[in-house]
Amino acid sequence: MALGQQHVSTHRPEAERRDVDSEAPPSVSAVAFRQAMSCLPTAVYLVTTDGPGGRAGFTASAVCSVTDDPPTLLVCINRRASAYAAFADNALLCVNALGAEHETVSNAFGGKTPMAERFARAEWTTQATGAPVLVDALAHFECRVSQRVAVGTHDVLFCEIEAMSSCDGRERLLYFDRQYHRLPSR
Ligand SMILES: NC(=O)c1ccc[n+]([C@@H]2O[C@H](COP(=O)([O-])OP(=O)(O)OC[C@H]3O[C@@H](n4cnc5c(N)ncnc54)[C@H](O)[C@@H]3O)[C@@H](O)[C@H]2O)c1
Ligand SMILES: Cc1cc2c(cc1C)N(C[C@H](O)[C@H](O)[C@H](O)COP(=O)(O)O)c1[nH]c(=O)[nH]c(=O)c1N2
């Protein structure tokens, strides 16, 4: 093993394995898991919604492509987030991918800032679904939530794409090692 590398083993013999529903304490701590995840770069998104539950949004990195038929993303949202109630009540959302110039607005949507103030930090429009679309998003995906699955502290929202725009050539905003980074498009 290279100097400085730490190996966290999750392997257990067959007899010791338990069902995923078991009450057994996890063998990897949340702190160790977060530390490992912190070294993996991710894109950064503002996930926004509007509807009967009101307008809300939060900064997300737990966003992933699921299938291209039908085109579907997943978004993980912490049930303790101030935005959660709106996402629980609304069926529509927009996943706005951020460019390097969006670091300040990403910080506003990343917690503690009142919802109206978050939205006041950027320019918004509505297009196909009525969910807030960031005018200068690097790319956006307007979605209908097709399934919700509760896993631990989070809900996983499966989101079918109804309209979108593709990435342009600007620098991307990345997040890793607990900091923002800029990535040129080529
Ligand atoms: N998936 C998430 O919910 C998620 C992801 C990134 C950051 N955050 C939140 O943003 C703040 C700053 O994060 P940070 O990256 O600077 O330091 P951190 O040590 O809290 O997190 C390091 C990494 O662990 C993962 N992570 C953090 N909190 C998580 C959670 N509750 N559930 C699942 N994965 C999680 C993410 O990949 C994150 O980049 C924290 O409050 C953190 O909880 C949450
Ligand atoms: C870079 C980055 C990435 C993420 C987050 C933060 C930051 C800074 N946060 C946390 C989220 O944006 C917000 O801070 C929490 O929901 C708490 O916000 P409130 O103060 O309750 O609105 C976050 N939360 C979540 O539920 N899923 C996610 O994927 C992410 N990803």
Reported CATH architecture: Roll
Spell out the helices and strands N to C.
Answer: HEEEEEHEHHEEEEEE
Query: For this structure, what is the CATH homologous superfamily?
Result: Electron Transport, Fmn-binding Protein, Chain A
Estimate the mean pLDDT confidence: 90
Which descriptor suits the 3D outline? globular
Strand portion: 35-45%
Distance between the termini: 33 Å
**Total beta strand runs:** 12
Ligands and ions found = nicotinamide-adenine-dinucleotide, the ligand Cc1cc2c(cc1C)N(C[C@H](O)[C@H](O)[C@H](O)COP(=O)(O)O)c1[nH]c(=O)[nH]c(=O)c1N2
Name the helicity range.
Answer: 10-25%
Strands in their spatial order, largest beta sheet: 3-2-6-9-10-5-4
> Can you tell me the CATH class?
Mainly Beta
Radius of gyration: 18 Å
Instruction: Please identify the oligomeric state.
Output: single chain
Number of helical segments?
4
Question: How are the SSEs ordered, and which strands pair?
Answer:
Layout: H1 30-37, E1 42-43, E2 45-49, E3 56-60, E4 63-68, E5 71-78, H2 84-89, E6 92-97, H3 103-109, H4 115-120, E7 124-125, E8 133-134, E9 139-151, E10 154-165, E11 172-176, E12 179-183
Antiparallel strand pairs: 1-11, 2-3, 2-6, 4-5, 5-10, 6-9, 7-8, 9-10, 11-12
Region (Disordered): 1-27
Organism: Salinicola acroporae
Function: Catalyzes the reduction of FMN to FMNH2 which is used to reduce pyrimidine by RutA via the Rut pathway.
